[in-house]
């Protein structure tokens, strides 16, 4: 950027370079900012591997900077002649690493390192150029008062850099630190050694996708003569996750120097007449050097990590795929349809048309698959229920058989056919028919359902609390519980569903960051002097993965992947069609003030809370990440919004914005009383749902009398609300004056969503089952009227609870249609 001229400094008697930003470019505020930023950043640094800047100023409206004059060629010009010899490439990389270390020490990240911005002087010295995209990541130390301060930054989501050399976090528009420069240096070193760019596709978009999801071509294939130890250093620089790269540029320089020293040490010859003790000492010293070099290699070498080689879409039927997944040697089994109306579907491991497994079980959810692939273990029940019956379903067809009489919270299969299941009284192991149960006392306190290893010997489960999460293992008999992984800054916000690869060598799990789920893997072992292995992030978006299973041959992971997008729609009763509402924004759960002037809703999939007029005007964002909203209700007067986050806590925020105030812990789905003084919310206590009143006048929280087993209360009048019973088959009404409950309406198809209309004349609800419908209950006489079928209407989210349900002030039904894609993918993995 700019024009460069050779000039002579008459005062100091030296040749210099003057870089000028022409006036027509200086009128571009962004280019001018970058030019000034380059000058300030370079001037703050004094290092032999960074271009020295002497002066910055402006002449006749044209900014300029004066720097040392370099003679030689850019590294790009060098690379046009072909690969660089390994010894020379290492020499260049060491100089670049030390230059970066000096910049990072000052808190300056380059962010646009590439061969064009590296200069090779005639004497073989590397100079780093062009800090126009540099960013300060920390405040200069108080001991350095003259360090220039750069306050310009980049907002999250803005992608800056050159496509072929950007780190994955830069591609995603995330905040990046010095480790992004190490990724770029790894790409450059890869190119110097092979003569080929590490990531190069026909378009920038494809190149960035490759950076996120693919590995560069193996150096051993392109340049077999490159030493394996050097290849490992390059691969470590190119790790997708920043925490898996070298910790700092200094560490990288040290590792490269260790390689250089081990391959270029002097050859020493000794005269025969020298004393034997002298020879012995030299041999001992040489041996010590070898041991130290070996230890350095061991501690700095790149740990073997799995690599995703390709991702192939296997299905294309456009149906929602939620719940669980299992696979045998030839078929993949997964759940399709909205919650409450699950079906079991199947597809070949090679892809193709999907088919149905049709057990005579209501709403079957896959829990496991026998080792020989002869039967599926499924549960049956409502989508909010936490107790289910369990069944064994023969494959490809046959009569389903119920296992045991007591409902369970969940169940798994051991490879040898035994059952692992969780009830209110604890975690049990039983025989195939659920006879001879044996309680696992040590694990029962966690109230979680583990996965079983392929060799029947280990269990894995995750525990989440206010301090984060831990992934834990135990022996198959429930003893020897220990933590194998725990939450940290470099790992996902939350994790789920850990299970082993078929050979038991790796644990796979899902990790959520900013609303998207990616697949992770880590080798479950301890390594000498190096602690627990670092998990490897297998996928990096844009697909969000839910259910997954490892293939029997160990070569692939099958997973349900979604490109998340919803469309808010209104049902027009006249045309009997759904039409976009609020411009068809991707949002869920809109609710309206009693006068119809204000609406609050949750953006999808981000989970942020917004308020606006129904026409979309005067829109205000009310919550910000990392807080993610799961349910919200606007107050009758439109002045406040009560909401619960995904952890189940209830908050209150002004409709004009501000800091949300926490009202209650583990209380969710709040709704307002007509006078705006009370909230009714649901909590889970002593293995059962219960309704609670939150009094906004004094902040007190009190249980609703006799509400055990009810949830999701909605005020339907000044002195009453309607809730659902625990198995989702019946609505019940609570009278605040009498303190009594009464039945309202029931259905064998299970209730899925429900809401009171803003005018409080109707209570709307939807059902699951094979023919899901939306109905409305007239509150004056409890008359039920059908509104519209939603049989083929797919909702959003990792767990599709139908299209959702809201009601506009004029009585129109609002739903959120899933307009994203949700299909089964085969992820081919090269395991170390």
Major β-sheet annotation: 4 strands, antiparallel
Report helical residue fraction.
10-25%
Report the principal-axis shape: globular
Beta percentage is 35-45%
The top level CATH class name of the domain at 307-564 and 823-830: Mainly Beta
Q: Would you identify the CATH H-level superfamily of the domain at 307-564 and 823-830?
A: TolB, C-terminal domain
* Number of helical elements: 12
Give me the Rg, rounded.
32 Å
CATH topology of the domain at 307-564 and 823-830: Neuraminidase
Strand order of the largest sheet: 1-2-4-3
What is the residue-mean pLDDT, rounded to a whole number? 83
Give me the count of strands.
57
List low-pLDDT spans.
138-160, 263-279, 297-302
CATH architecture name of the domain at 307-564 and 823-830: 6 Propeller
Name the structural class: alpha+beta
Ends apart, CA distance between termini:
44 Å
Topology at a glance:
Layout: E1 3-9, E2 14-20, H1 23-26, H2 29-43, E3 53-59, E4 62-68, E5 72-74, H3 75-79, H4 86-105, E6 108-109, E7 118-121, E8 126-128, E9 135-136, H5 168-171, H6 178-194, H7 204-213, H8 219-222, H9 228-237, H10 249-264, H11 276-300, E10 307-313, E11 321-327, E12 331-336, E13 343-348, E14 355-357, E15 364-369, E16 375-380, E17 389-394, E18 401-402, E19 410-413, E20 419-423, E21 426-430, E22 438-439, H12 441-444, E23 451-452, E24 458-465, E25 468-475, E26 482-486, E27 494-500, E28 506-513, E29 516-523, E30 536-537, E31 544-550, E32 556-563, E33 566-572, E34 577-580, E35 587-592, E36 599-603, E37 609-612, E38 620-621, E39 629-634, E40 640-645, E41 650-654, E42 661-664, E43 667-672, E44 678-685, E45 688-695, E46 701-703, E47 710-717, E48 720-725, E49 730-735, E50 740-746, E51 751-756, E52 762-767, E53 773-778, E54 783-789, E55 806-807, E56 813-818, E57 821-830
Helix pairs in contact: 4-6, 4-10, 6-9, 9-10, 10-11
